[in-house]
Amino acid sequence: MTAAPQPALARRLTLGGAIAIGLASMIGAGVFAAFAPAAAAAGDWLLLGLAIAAFVAFANASSTGQLAARYPESGGAYRYGRIRLGEWPGFLAGWGFVVGKTASCAAMALTAADYLVPTEWERPVAVASVVVLAGVNLLGITRTARAATVIVTVTLAVLALVIVAGLTLIGQRGGAVGFGMTTPGFEAGGAYGVLQSAGLLFFAFAGYARVATLGEEVREPARTIPRAIAISLGIVVAVYAAIGTTLLATLGAPALATSDAPLADVAASTGWNWAEPVVQVGAAIAALGALLALIAGIGRTSLAMARDRELPRPLAAVHPRSHVPYVAEISVAVAIIVLVLVADLRGAIGFSSFGVLVYYLVANLAAFTQPREDRRIPRALSVAGAIGCGVLVATLPLASILGGLAVFAIGAVVRLIARAARRRTGGHGGTDDREDTAGRPGAAPPE
């Protein structure tokens, strides 16, 4: 018996909402924390590392935008990899994203709570944050976009405060800046250090493709998604460049490298003691914004994988009124809460970084295979993005690489067992989705 078709997701997300979700995905807690370890790696060459990270992000975002214009469906690189490259590349991209980013969500929830409350209250507050943000997502994509807009506005205001504080500090010093300041025993890592800083800063950019995972809910997707990705990434590059310059100019690379809260240190250096807690709260809000967007993205990727029976079929359920994948959203929230309660993943999610780079590698390779009529960018840019992902993987700590490989190996074994079980019971064992025309359920119609 054929199951009744599920309601489709509704195209309700406008350009402004898509940009807000893209910004919320990128401007997370990373901007408050990533510059210190990046400075420890690159020293005064921090801005070069930032430029490399921005270029890799631009190449990846360009490939993603091109794919999203042709395949405006839920799932992002999972869907693109499955259609353009085959089932296995698509599955690995989706599996790495869902598993890795679920762990990242737990880390973000704990990080936000760490900024807001004493240690003994961290886990209860983190759980409450997940419940509230999942509830917002369950109300519909437009509510998610509105919440993201509020969060992004507050976060950008806090970052602007830090920049103003930095300019004030430079004025107090009579124009002297911290570039080139040295500390005995402080050495950056040369060319490798610059690449390592790029790898660290790249993950402060990661999130620009979140709107692509929501592609099935965007109005005029062929036009809106590439524009939303480009605009949100452009804004973030400008903001990060301003923040990086401010930190180097005020603190100097040695002090920045050893700071636990560099943005708060800039505010404190001006004598604005009232600004320190403001920056702390801003970091928490930024983490919650990224968490909001990630829950939505993981839910849509889980929906896409469930439609193809790569994940349990009930995850494909769509609420008939709110038009959200409510079973997937609730399942993601429950998984995050369990992780928050049983483990502190803030220092042990290197495999998430590995998974993100594999995810974007698949997107670049999928974009490279698109025919001329679907191309919006030169193939060379997709090649550059793929190479950039490979180089940044090589800069990850060995433990992160091994952890990532273990996660993908587990996913491959689970998939093989599930396919074998379906074959034994006469179920569908999977199909090859590579195609040039829309002919499968849920496929994007020809443009």
UniProtKB/TrEMBL annotation:
Species in which this protein is naturally found: Agromyces tardus
Region of interest (Disordered), ranges: 424-447
Gene3D superfamilies from the UniProt entry: Amino acid/polyamine transporter I
Protein name as it appears in the record: APC family permease
Signal peptide start and end residues: none
Annotated keywords: Cell membrane, Membrane, Transmembrane, Transmembrane helix
InterPro entries: AA/rel_permease1, APC_superfamily, TAT_signal
Membrane topology according to the record: Multi-pass membrane protein
Membrane spanning stretches: 12-39, 45-69, 90-113, 125-141, 148-170, 190-209, 230-257, 277-303, 324-343, 349-368, 380-396, 402-418
One GO MF term: transmembrane transporter activity
